[in-house]
Amino acid sequence: MDSTFLFSILLTGGITWIITKLLSTGRREQHLPPGPPTVPILGNALMVPSKFAQLKFTEWARQYGGIFSLKIGHGTVIVVSDATVLKEFMDKRSNETSGRPSFYTGSLITDGYFIAEADSTTDIWRMGRKALQTLFSPQSVNKHLPVAVAESSQLLFDLLCSPQDFEKHIDRYTFSILLSIAFGKRCPRPDTEEERLFYEGVRLTVQVVSAEGPPVDLLPILKYVPERWASWKGICREARTLQRRLYFGLLEEAESRLARGEGTGCFMEEVIHRQEELGMSKDAAAWLGAIVLEASHSSGSFISSLILCFVAFPETLRKAQNEIDSVLPDGRLPTMDDIASLPYIRAILREVHRLKPMAPLGMPHALLETQEYRGYVIPKGTTIFINAWGILHDPEVFDEPEVFRPERFLLSEHGTKPGVDSKDWRASIPFGSGKRLCPGMNLVNTNLAFTIATLVWAFDFATAIDPVTKTPIPVDIDAYEEGLVFRPRPFACSISPRSEAKAKLIRQRFTDATPALSKYELFLTKEK
User: Fold this and answer.
1) What is the pLDDT of residues 286-319, one digit of tens each?
2) What's the distance, CA 222 to chain centroid?
């Protein structure tokens, strides 16, 4: 055979193979769940919005079902938007569905030590999970509840003195509780060095790990672009510097306290005692403390959403106040023990989680082994999103799902419509699934329920009045920021004490809490 002719055949065959491969890239394989139409090479990549993706995912779920697929280039994404699928595919198969997809920008910041990003097969995840189970055991949660009670006294006092700064007070409150529990040090006022480092680190991290950040995991070649042409690398480096300064500094303070015999009984002191037993390096220990502090950001978003809902749906606040007043007729402040006697307060907790989940899509999972489910074959390495928003806003399951209505949780266990089969539902849906279920869920919910009760007891929340026009300033219940957590955009509202007698009790409670708070005020400078 003529060599030129043979070369032509080989060249033609090679070109045909490349074209066929390119055209098949982005195409949905027949064994996958259905999903929106794809285009060659990109698949559905251009169809997924960079912000509020849960809304588009929910729209697709109504069209393609509770489990659907997307193609992002040659990769596959599965979206779970149904409680039964969540139980069957994610919870019951947790060993196979608890991986994490590649997260390059996150690893640049945390050096791979942040267990929320770590794959469930790694030693980092196993060590961290074991240590966290100790912190979040029922006995440990009860041990740390006095911290939350003492901090709540300052939150009420701060809101009484400067209600216009309620967002700052909320952030200080949630951060200080977990700073005390994790590292044995509190945050006595907004904008301390620790709080500044924490929220600046969060801000920078959001820039590079959100959907608007660089698509390094889709285009790995971006890893090799020099920093002078990749500004995101500089942001990662700055975020890493800030966060290491915060977490390693706090860990060293805890070590110094223990060396002097001045321990506070905080979580990281226990980790230090057990560091050798756990096989945990100093880096791993510091980033373990970070995972505890991260919950303060989501708790702050919850309280902001709560106040927004009270302003937008004032009848719910009145019902909650009537319940508080009936249970506490003597006018005293609520205690943790009172929560069991406040079903409407507990319903409010559930309804805020349902209406405005703190993490509408959570962190993505990755499939560790190929799985067959409902006749579909879902390959190993598939990225999985749990669309908590879609599950909790399903009009087939909830009456008027976009309305804040705590009463729904008094009528049925999971707030569902009459006649809806809710055997596959669980209260922890907003907190993840399987092995990835948030280990601090009980501590967070206990603190949030108590916070709701104290705020309802103490204050009236209403629309703010424009000082010029003297007209109410409406709030937008759907105006939210996209980030690591789902939080309302800044809004104006009126916060006032329900009576002068309550204002007096708030001031007295804050004074009485001084001894409990001072335990966590070592290593504070005058500026802090």
Assistant:
1) 999 999 998 888 999 999 999 999 999 999 999 9
2) 28
Give per-residue pLDDT as tens, 93-137: 999 999 999 888 889 999 989 988 888 888 899 888 888 887 788
Residue with tokens 């929560």: 339
Q: Which long-range contacts (CB under 8 A, 24 or more apart) does 135-141 make?
A: 135/181, 135/267, 135/270, 135/292, 135/439, 135/440, 136/439, 136/440, 136/441, 136/442, 136/443, 138/442, 141/442, 141/443, 141/446
C-alpha distances in Å from residue 435, one per residue of 92, 94, 365, 427: 10, 6, 11, 16
Pairing state between β 75-80 and 383-386: parallel
Residue-by-residue DSSP string for 194-210? HHHHHHHHHHHHHHHHS
**For residue 15, what pLDDT is reported?**
47
Is residue 142's pLDDT more than 90? no
Give residue for tokens 């055991």.
137
- Locate all alpha helices (DSSP H) within 210-335, ordered by sequence: 231-259, 267-273, 275-278, 282-312, 314-327
What is d(CA 406, CA 348) in angstroms, rounded to the nearest whole number? 5
SS3 495: strand
Residue 117 to residues 122, 364, 436, Cα–Cα distance (Å)? 11, 9, 11
The whole-model pTM stands at: 0.92
Whole-angstrom distance, CA of residue 25 vs CA of residue 320:
55
Mapped to the 3 state alphabet, what secondary structure does 43-112 carry?
A: ECHHHCCCCCHHHHHHHHHHHHCCEEEEEECCEEEEEECCHHHHHHHHHCCHHHHCECCCCHHHHHHHCC
pLDDT, averaged across the chain: 90
Q: Which residues are 384's β-sheet partners?
A: 78, 365
Q: And the tokens for 324? A: 């508080």
Q: What local confidence, expressed as pLDDT, does residue 520 receive?
A: 83
| Residue 114 burial (C-beta neighbours within 10 Å; 0-12, 13-18, 19+) | buried
Q: How confident is the model at residue 26 (pLDDT cuts 50, 70, 90)?
A: low
Coil, helix or strand at residue 371: strand
**For the chain, what is the largest distance between any 2 Cα atoms, rounded to a whole number of angstroms?**
103
Q: Domains in the chain and their CATH numbers?
A: 82-518 (1.10.630.10)
